[in-house]
Each structure stands twice: as structure tokens, then as C-alpha cells.
Amino acid sequence: MKTKQLTLCAFFTILYILGSRITIPTGIIPLTLQTMMVIIAGILLRPKEILASYGVYFLMGFVGLPVFASGGGLSYVLQPSFGFLLSFPFAACLISALRHKYELTHFYQLYPLCLCALCFIYLIGCGYMYLIFNYYMGSAKDISSIIAIGAAPFVISDSISMAVGCFCAIRLSMVSSIKRILIYE
Q: Which of 19, 85, 137, 141 has the fewest beta carbons under 10 Å from its own?
């Protein structure tokens, strides 16, 4: 990786940490700005940079630094909400790959893609939550109660934060100095 790519990865790792630490407690899953950061990363970065920046983010969290919404440590994988974290780099890579393949640049093109990524995040996050509740914690929950806990309360706020993230990322990608950083020789 070139220096500017490593700098972008470090910058986005910081954004992921900030997005997870700005938290509104709402029960099992706190309301954060993480989905907005997923969208911004997916629109601005390439999959390689997304995976590198999330790799550093997860490494920091697993060694015990409090970079996740509720702390850190290797035991965080047993949190019911960890599946959402796990889905973020893949959702961002999906956005990035499709954005670059089809040369999507407008809000009306990217926002539906971001909503598809949100569905992916909910699918992985709720699926993981189901497994943790039913097989690790031993508290039997059906899929409808998992959706009521893990997805339904966040659909509107996540859709709005995705729209804001999409709009901001598109505007940032048009700034000439940022555009030079994002173009790879």
C-alpha cells in the first residue's frame, strides 16, 4: 500500500472509533453513527482499504482498547450486537465494489445500494444475535423477537444516517484535493 492509502486507512479507523463511541443507549444495541461510517467508507474507499482499516479497528478492540460501542476485549465476540460489527466491513466492501464496477456517482444511484447494504447488516447482525441468544446465553428467542430488538427500532434512524452519510461522501468525493487522494495511479 502507498502512503496515502495507509493514511486513509488510519483516518477511517479513527472515524470508525468515533462513530462507535458517539452512543445513545437504547437497550441491547446502542444507537451509534457506525452505519454512517460504513456508508462513507464504502463510497470513498476501495475494498482493500476498507478491510485494512476495519482490520486495525478489530485488532484494537480485541486487544482490549475500548473502541467498540460498549468497550473492547476478545470476549466482545460473545455480545449479541457483535454480528452488526462483523457485517460492517463486508457491507462497506459491497458498496465499494458495486460503486466502482458500475461507476455510480449520484445520490439516487448510491442510496438504494446503501439501503441494500443496510439490509445485509441487519441480516448478519440479527442472525448472529439469534445464535448468541439461543445457543450461548440459553435464552430462547424467536426470529421475530430478534428483529424487534435488533432491527425494527433502528430502521428509520439508520436510513436517515445512511442518507446523510451518502450525501456527505458524494460531496467529499467531488472536492478536488480529496479526489486526488482517492484516485489511484
A: 137
